[in-house]
Amino acid sequence: MKTDMIIKRCIVLIMLIGMTTSYAQISKAEIVATGLTCSMCSNAINKQLKAMPEVEKVMIDLNSNTFVVNLKKNSSITPQDLKNNIEKTGFFVGSMILTIDANNVKPKDNDSFKNASGTYIFVDSDEKAANEKLRLKVLNSGFVTKKEYKKSAKMLSKYNVSGKEEGTYYVKII
To answer: How far apart are CA 147 and CA 59, in angstroms?
Structure first.
């Protein structure tokens, strides 16, 4: 009698574990800011990013104007949120690379996945086995320099990309 009850509980537990989906979440963002001329400029961006409740730590490389933003666990911050906070200081994003914890994401050209921070569409990517972390470069307008966006516009045209869909990010694995 007791063994039947234990077996039933084990089956229920296994079913619950099987129904749980892994959520791909942004753990880190590497942002190159443009328009900076001095250390006071980078300090303004640093303060703005650190004021965000989802941000755990910000590291700055003044030589390349790169801000490495480590995010808190279970953060639902979006790339748009990060971009908006940089633009509040009067500067722009020249490049944004996201590190996403993605156990069950299978990168495939023109395939997508959703998480709490948005919908991500893979662009110009070979089907690769996903490891625990994916490094994705955001290709939307405003997330790369105008010159780089212009260069990639031809490639993006086959994806019917306008770059205007809110919460949709076109990404390339790097």
So the answer is: 26
